[in-house]
Amino acid sequence: MSKETATASVSVKDVAAAAGVSLGTVSNVLNQPERVSPTTVARVRAAIAELGYVRNDAARQLRAGRSSTIGLIALDLANPFFAAVAKGAQERAAEAGLFVLVAASEDTREREMAYLDHFSQQRVVGVLVTPASADPAAIERLEAVGTRIVLVDRDAGDAALNSVSVDDEQGGYLAVSHLLTTGRRRIMFVGGPTTLPQVLDRFAGARRAAAEVSDASLEHLETAELTVLSGRDAAARILERDHGDRPDAVFCANDLVAVGMLQGLAILGGVSVPDEIALVGYDDIDFATATVVPLTSVRQPAVEIGRAAVELLLEQDGERSRPRQVRFTPELIIRESSRATLRI
Fold this sequence. Notes:
- This protein is of the alpha/beta class and 344 residues long.
- 44% of the residues lie in helices and 16% in strands.
- The protein contains 13 helices and 12 strands.
- The strands form 2 sheets. Strands 2-1-3-4-5-11 form a 6-stranded parallel beta sheet, sandwiched between helices. Strands 7-6-8-9-10-12 form a 6-stranded mixed beta sheet, sandwiched between helices.
- Strand 6, helix 10 and strand 7 form a beta-alpha-beta unit.
- 43% of the residues are buried.
């Protein structure tokens, strides 16, 4: 019999028989070897190696009612912001002896619910999720039947859920207030879809800032996605306008859109950034400093968000406790793309 075949069929009972010990002794060697004499540990491990036994962790976890895995469902893993959140979550989970399994909903409710159901069936420690819609009711119902949930990059609102978020309304306010202080007055907010609460909150902050300056205007150019390609497409729409009808500043809903906007305006359209059009992004991803014109951006502490989400999950005990919401304050990082020009 080949080792591959043996591995699939060998049981703990076979190991116990080969080593001449009880089932309980084999279990102790596998889980609490310090409780077994070194000689017996060596004999059991030799039998395991000889027979090619592989423990079934999935079955063991189901019997225990809990796994060593945390599920994380992000909107888009191509977005460096969510990759940084996952990094923070993995760091904190590792400190607790846990693992993080990452999935992407691609901003679709159907895929999100499929992953939530799967993680629930696997009896994971809990799930960190950035919801694909503004209504977390279905997620709240899932937690009610036993799956611990933490919303990530989303305030729980009225839902009885734990959450870790950033004050996106304040972030939008910081971005547009900065543009106004550099003398810009025709400001455009670029981003979407408007089904995303983050987009709506950032636009609301931009509106609040613009309302404080009497001669300022603010328009919204909605995009279908928060991607580089969406930013390039939005830039092309701006370039179709007469020069006098173009904005003198653009605030993008995230850095990916801002990178695409910069490519479309400066490289493809020959527009001087920031002299003709100033530009601000959101998230402050690592790539923001490496663009042809370093990008001003509203920084979200992505790694800290991931760590805090796992911490909230670990704080939850077996009984349903009062949910807690953690909110971070964003920070404006000013770079070349929005500096004041000589006309000020």
